[in-house]
Amino acid sequence: MIRVALLFGGRSSEHGISCATAAGVLSAIDRSRFEVVPVGITRTGAWTLQPDDSELFALRAELPEVVDNGTRVRLPDAADSRELTLVAADGTESSLGDIDIVFPILHGKFGEDGTVQGQLELLDLPYVGNGVLASSVAMDKHMTKSVLVAAGIDVAPWVSLTPARWDGQRELFERRIRALGLPVFVKPSRAGSSVGVTKVAEWSDLDAAVEVAFAEDTTVLVEAAVVGREVECAVLEGRDGGEPRVSLAGEIVVTGRDFYDFEAKYLDPDAAQLICPAELHDGELREMRRIAARAFEAIGGAGLARVDFFLTGEGFVVNEINTMPGFTPISMFPSCWQASGVSYPELITELIELGLAARR
C-alpha cells in the first residue's frame, strides 16, 4: 500500500479552493492502492491532521476551510527519514509512520509557488507535480510571460508595476498603460482564481483597481484585454522522458459577467459554462496542443499543468499556466482528461505514479 500525505488548505487566498480540491481527491483516490494521510494547513500555516472525510471539505454555498483542531503534523527532521510525527492537542507525540509521497494540492502563494516544493526537496521527500523552478515561474505572471515570449509564444501585452514604480514614476507608467488601450485587466502577479483581478473600462477606475491588486501582491500586472474564445487544455508529463501529453480542449463561456472572475468560477453556478471538448477543427486543436506542450517545456514543467488560451482571429494567445490547477471532479483539468479517455481516479493514480518515478 502506497502512503500518500495529502496537503491542502494553506495560507493563500485560495485556501477554500484547495480544500474543495482535497474533497475531490479524497472521494476518488484508489483506496486499494493508496492510503491517505490528510494534512490540512490552516490559514495561519499550522499543519494539522484532518479526518479522512471528503464531505467535510466539499464545495458548497460557503467555501470549506481547514479548522485548527489543535493537532500538529511534523515533517521528518532529516533527509534520511520519511516518518511523519503527530503532536496531539494535549502535546502527546506519536508516529504517523512513513509516507511514500506527498501530494501538495495547494493553490496560490505558500504552496503552488515553489515554497513547499523547496521544503520537500530539502527533506528528499517525493512529491506530486512541478518542481521549485516551474512552480515559482508559473506563479508569477510577469515571469511566465517573459519566459513564454523568449520561447516564441504569443501573450497579451502587459506592464508590470511595483509600489515604488507606481508612486515614484506614476506619469511614465500611466503613459505605458494607456498605450495598451481600453479595456485592461489589472492583476496581482502572484495570485490565482482571479483573486484581486479587476477589468478596467475607464481610466478613472485604474487607481482603485491597482490598489485592489496591490492588496494581494507587491507586483501588479496591467494587461491589454484580448478578444477571443477562452479555451484551455490539460498537460501531463510524458512517461519515461517522453513528450508531454496534452488533452482535448475545453472552453469557458461566461454569461452575465464581464469576465471569468472568482464568483463565476466557484460561487455562481449560472455564471459560466465549462464545455469539454470544445469545438475546434483539427488544425486548431493540433496547434493548441503544440503550444501547450511548448509552454510546459519552457517553464521546465513536471507532473501536470493547465494552459489557458484566448483563441483570436490571428491565432492562440497564452493567458497563463497553472501548475496546480483546480482539481475537483468538475474542474477543467480533470474534465479535459475525462473527455480524452482518462477518468478522474485514473488521473490521480497517474499523477502519483509520475511523482514516484521522477524522484526514485
Report on the structure:
The protein folds into 3 domains: 2-127, Rossmann fold, CATH 3.40.50; 137-155 and 228-342 and 352-358, D-amino Acid Aminotransferase, Chain A, domain 1, CATH 3.30.470; 158-224, ATP-grasp fold, A domain (Dna Ligase, domain 1, 2-Layer Sandwich), CATH 3.30.1490. The strands form 4 sheets. A 5-stranded antiparallel beta sheet has the order 14-13-12-15-16. Strands 3-2-1-7 form a 4-stranded mixed beta sheet, with helices on both faces. A 4-stranded antiparallel beta sheet has the order 8-11-9-10. The chain is built from 11 helices and 16 strands. It is an alpha+beta fold and 360 residues long. Strand 2 and strand 3 (47-49) form a beta hairpin.
What structural class should be given to the helix and strand makeup? alpha+beta
CATH architecture of the largest domain: 2-Layer Sandwich
End-to-end CA span: 17 Å
| Radius of gyration over all CA atoms, rounded | 20 Å
CATH topology of the largest domain: D-amino Acid Aminotransferase, Chain A, domain 1
Supply the number of structural domains: 3
Helix share, percent: 25-40%
Task: Please report the first level of CATH classification, the CATH class of the largest domain.
Answer: Alpha Beta
Summarize the structure.
The chain has 360 residues and is α+β, with helices and mostly antiparallel strands. 30% of the residues lie in helices and 26% in strands.
